[in-house]
Amino acid sequence: MADADVNPKAYPLADATLTKTILDLVQQAANYKQLRKGANEATKTLNRGIAEFIVMAADAEPLEIILHLPLLCEDKNVPYVFVRSKQALGRACGVSRPVVATSVTIKEGSQLKPQIQSVQMAIERLLV
Length: 128
Known about the structure:
Blueprint: H1 16-31, E1 35-37, H2 39-48, E2 51-57, H3 68-76, E3 80-83, H4 86-92, E4 101-105, H5 113-126
Parallel strand pairs: 2-3
Antiparallel strand pairs: 1-4, 2-4
Helix pairs in contact: 1-4, 1-5, 2-3
């Protein structure tokens, strides 16, 4: 799908390469139980201060159901990023349903820390 089809409010949007990296990490986070799925759960992780970063789907319908998350992320200084497809995000989360928002959570001594940090840096580069 062309950039024209993506809601301009879905910013920053990851490109294909970064999307793959992010979805791979989301999948690993699911295996390591470092993942919360859904807009409500993502909101809770932000409020509790346990979110490493937030991934949202640009094709959420209507997009407004997740647009409170970027505000909250900025408030809490948590990186956030949009990927194009809720279907792909759901698959990466290991569920058969589409997922519009997910949060990778902080875990002491997590083996994913280096990957998480590199994704956080990549997301922050998008925002410049």
